[in-house]
Amino acid sequence: MKSNIKIILGILSLVILLLIISTSNYYINYKLEKTNIIINNQNLSLYLLNIYGEGCYQYNITNGYFIIKNKGPGINYIVPLVEYINTTSFIFCNQTIYYSITVKECPPIWYPCNVSCTSEICPMVRCLGYPCYNMTYNINITYPIIIANNNIFLYDNNVYCYSENNCDIIYQLLPREYLYVLIYQLIVSRPPVVPVVPVSK
């Protein structure tokens, strides 16, 4: 009888342990590797952060910071000019997605006004209009990317960790639609290019 109770208690303990593991960050989707890199003529001893997993994850660090090497602009609209950036938080996305986003754009444009006059300032008279049109953006991502400090970079083992306590990293899984929403917001919040139509004399 006592042996049966021990077996039942053992099975219950194992089930509880599995539940705790499945609901926590027990599965580590990164690996730290000690390495040295040279930044601004300084030889720094850092940890290379090898990241695994599908989807998007947000990484945060306490008592330290991440160093991200710029290996390309990714899907940036503006190419970052820095070689390295420092941050205490970044997002890693490893998703293969393809979709189209159609947004209505109404950029301001200057055009000649239909004004009849004979003075010398007439050629300088212009009117401001907002012609609208639908613009379609085709998004195709088949490689991991890093999002940090409002920049998007290609991920190619280019994230390092600097800390005095072996990099205390906390990460969490983001919603599956996170990347789609982010790119959509980048597109609709992008300042429009203002074409200027020259006024003919």
Oligomer: single chain
Report the helical percentage. Answer: 10-25%
Structural class: alpha+beta
Uncertain residue segments: 12-26, 196-201
Number of helical regions = 2
Q: Largest sheet, described in full?
A: 8 strands, antiparallel
Strand residues, percent? over 45%
| Separation, N- and C-terminal Cα atoms | 105 Å
Order of helices and strands: HEEEEEEEEEEEEH
Q: Which of globular, elongated, flat, extended, rod-shaped describes the shape?
A: elongated
Number of E strands? 12
Mean pLDDT: 75
The Rg value, from CA coordinates, equals: 27 Å
SSE topology sketch:
Layout: H1 2-22, E1 30-39, E2 42-51, E3 55-69, E4 84-87, E5 89-94, E6 97-105, E7 109-112, E8 126-129, E9 133-141, E10 145-148, E11 151-154, E12 159-173, H2 178-188
Antiparallel strand pairs: 1-2, 2-12, 3-4, 3-5, 3-12, 5-10, 6-9, 7-8, 10-11
